[in-house]
Amino acid sequence: MSVSEIEALLKSKEDYKIALRLFSILSIAKGESSRKAQELLLLSHNQICIWVKRFNEFGLEGLNDRPKTGRKPKITNDQLDWLKNLILNESPTKYGFNTETWTAPLLVKVVEKHCNIVYSDDMIYVLLKKKMGLTHKKGKGFYAEEKPELREKFVEDLKKTL
Question: Name one Pfam family in it (predicted).
Answer without folding.
Answer: HTH_32
